[in-house]
Amino acid sequence: MSKRSARGGSRLAQVSAPEPEPELEVAELQLSSDEEYESGEESDLVSLSGGEDDAGVDREIEDAVLGYMAAAEKNRQDGGSASGSDDEGEHTDSGSGEEGEERSQEGGEGRQGAAEPQSANLHGAAAAAAVADDGDDDEQRPDDPASDSSEDERPNRNTIGDVPLVWYKDEEHVGYDAEGKKLARRPRRDRLEKHLAASDNIAKEMRTVYDEYNDEEIELSKEEMRMIQRIRAGQFPHVEVNPYEPEVDWFTRDVEVMPFNAAPEPKRRFVPSKWEEKKVVKLVRALRKGWIKRGQVEPEKPTAYLIWEDDGKTLDKTATGLTYIPAPKLKLPGHEESYNPAPEYLPTEEERNAEQLLDDEDRPQFVPTAYDCLRRVPAYANFIKERFERCLDLYLCPRTRRKRLIIEDPEVLVPKLPKPQDLQPFPTLLSVRYTGHSKVVRSVCPDPTGQWLLSGSDDGTVRLWEVRTGRCMQCWRLEEPVSCVAWCPSPGLSLLAAASGKRLLLLPSGVGNEEQEAATEAALAACTADSSGSSSDGIEDGQLVSWQRWQGGGEGQGGSSGSGRGSGSGGVVVLHKFGIKHVTWHARGDYFATTAPTGNTQAVLVNQLSKGVTQNPFRKNRGRVVRVLFHPSKPFFFVATQQNVRVYNLAKQALAKKLVSGSGVITSMAIHPTGDHLIVGSEDKRLCWFDLDLSAKPYRSLRYHQYAVRGAAFHRTYPLLASSSDDATVHVFHGMVYADLMTNPLIVPVKILRGHEMVDYQGVLDVAFHPTQPWIFTAGADATICLFVNP
User: Fold this and answer.
1) CATH class of the region 422-557+567-789
2) Quick check: 408 pLDDT over 60?
3) Whether 733 contacts 718, CB under 8 Å
């Protein structure tokens, strides 16, 4: 007998043991356990948990249902074969004893002993009918593609994909199959039909689920039901899975007698390691030098964090592989940017009017304004403009990273220079102070012999001093302030030049010998011979300047007119169209050049003393000219504008070189006696040293003054140079220039001279060296002249 038939026989025997049949619900389905299935005892009946008070009503309903099921089973058996019915009868009789007894105990304890056999027979008949229906359905039912397989392995009829089914709610189809045909919607059963179907075959109906996606009903197999039951119980879905399989010891723990490799031990195993020895030596050295601290606990450092976001990206790499460089931070707003700043931050009416007269570039971009409340503050007018300029700066301006050097000993930064005591002589002591001017002294110049000193001041006087005694030997009173004085370097003449306003005066000094005085008078007469008959009122049309005789004279020491040989003779005045600020002589003493910064195309004029002629070498000047110089030995002419210095070759009449200082406005210039080096002072406190044979850029840029540099000078014979500034100091340097072109010049600061006082933010305005001694003359804004000598 097969297992299915035996199981069916046991079910037929349950008719003799009636059991209450409550109302069927899906949520109260109780599946059979694995032990009942393996022992052949399985029940497809559904039991509900009801109270003892409703037991009588439940039994009546159950008896009616079982009677109906028994009658249906009897009709089916009468229509079947006799052999089949006999077999089923035998099975029923054989199994009615034990199972009927068990079902009677489950049905209730209050049943009578006489009614138990009849109820058990009726219940057993109904159960047998249900099992027979189940068996027939299993034999006649076609193979379900979803049985004994997962949902992923069963292909879907509907191929619409992950589309909401609500889109097809009002349609007659639920989707499309693989061939593109519509899947017609199947008619749905109402609740009455479902209840009747459950009454006919409760086991099949309870295992049926509705697939909304494919619009079909799927019947779960018994194996799938068991899997669901096991999952609910927290067990593995499949019975054949053993969670407690015996452990397999893949590796043996027994010590083998013979090793895997029988090779002898190498010699290096017994010799000390060379690398370990080096490591030990390294550690010992670190301990001796204190690199490794033993027994010292470092104090905990406070936790630091970055306030700004860009600071954390300094080590990050950009998309191009370059290091990220954060943009410079904007200036943080101060008290003046407040909507109601303090009164001291608010400009006065005079300051507001002065700001309106300034150029747009010099005018401040923000003017502090006070408001009584924040609601009255208007929108910032330059907001979009400033944001746009900031974006341009971030986009166009390149950024470079400068590594900060960590230097423990600052002494290593000091260059190894010789001691100042080894570089003597140089001026250190204040020897003579020349007093007599009433206003600022603008210029000083010693004569070629070094016996006399010439000075010009804003009080309109030119004074001639005796160097060693400090006595004023001669004084010329001019109508306007004197901006510059210069002594003619020719040894055969005793002549001086003074620039006062638009006039350049050539005056005989009166302190030379007879030959010098005679030669000076002859030179002055020769330069004005052609213009003796011309009018002296002004400059004629077509002329650059006007050469005229000047009959004014100097005052001697006692106040009398004239003080020596040639004192009664006058000088020559060269009348210009623009104010003269500087005058310089050629080394031979026949040519001199004047500088008029406001002269435009006539800013630089070159005059010849012997012929009394003037020429304009430049048709157009590249900038505002402030200084000019002649080369001491070559036909070169230096023209300094506010930003650069141009070197012209007078023989070729062409530009030879352009020197770029890279500093502020140029204020002074001096050339070395050899003609190969040039120093330039500027308003940004810099003194630039140019090597004319090396480059067009400064060889050294010295910045040691606190205010603008006003004067610079080289000594004719000693390796000395000096610079004066508005900070009322004079810095003296040892500047040795070597004949070897491979050796750089040696520049060593040796002394800072202080002898003047600042007046209206002006200090020492000019400086000049003695022609033969290591002495220096300084002109100050305190209306005095100082002579510093060596000890």
Assistant:
1) mainly beta
2) yes
3) no
Q: Which residues contact residue 599 at a Cβ distance below 8 angstroms, ignoring those fewer than 6 apart?
A: 576, 577, 578, 605, 625
* DSSP-assigned states of every residue in 574-602: EE-SS---EEEE-TTSSEEEEE-TT-GGG
Which tokens in the block code for residue 213?
Answer: 């996606």
Question: What token pair was written down for 407?
Answer: 């230097």
* DSSP per residue, 245-261: PPPP--S--SPPSS-S-
Cα–Cα distances in angstroms (integers) from residue 452 to residues 144, 449, 487, 548, 568, in the given order: 133, 8, 10, 27, 20
pLDDT at residue 553 is higher than 80: no
Burial class (CB within 10 angstroms; exposed 0-12, middle 13-18, buried 19+) of 771: middle
Is the separation of the CB atoms in 574 and 605 below 8 Å? no
The answer to whether 565 and 573 have CB atoms below 8 angstroms apart is no
Q: Enter the tokens of residue 301.
A: 């450092």
pLDDT band at 214 (very low <50, low <70, confident <90, very high): confident
Tell which wins on pLDDT, 708 or 303. Answer: 708
What are the tokens at 598? 């406001």
Length of the chain: 791
Domain regions of the chain by residue span? 2-98+113-163+189-232, 316-385+392-401, 422-557+567-789
Q: Among positive and negative, which fits the CA dihedral 191, 193, 196, 202?
A: negative
pLDDT at 376 over 50: yes
CB 758 within 8 A of CB 781: yes
3-state SS of 160-201 is CCCCCHHHHCCCCEEEECCCCCEEECCCCCCHHHHHHHHHHC
309 — pLDDT class (breaks 50, 70, 90): low
Residue 60 burial (10 A CB sphere; 0-12, 13-18, 19+): exposed
In 3D, which of 767, 556, 761, 746 has the Cα closest to residue 669?
767
Q: Which of 489, 474, 457, 695 is nearest to 567 (CA)?
A: 474
Cβ atoms within 10 Å, residue 451: 13
Structure tokens at 36: 């009942």
Q: In which residue are the tokens 């002004």 written?
A: 538
Q: Per-residue pLDDT averaged across 96-113, rounded?
A: 38
Tokens (6 digits) for 97: 């004893």
> What per-residue confidence (pLDDT) applies to 724?
95
More confident call, 59 vs 168: 168
φ and ψ at residue 103, rounded to 5 degrees: -70, -30
Helices (H), 312-407: 349-357, 383-396
- Contacts with 464 (C-beta within 8 Å, 6 or more apart), sequence order: 452, 453, 454, 472, 473, 474, 475, 496, 509, 511, 554
**Across all residues in the chain, what is the average pLDDT?**
77
Asked whether the beta carbons of 144 and 219 are under 8 A apart, the reply is yes
Closest CA relative to residue 597, chosen from 626, 564, 562, 628: 626
Mean pLDDT on 400-416: 79
Claim: this prediction has a pTM higher than 0.70: no
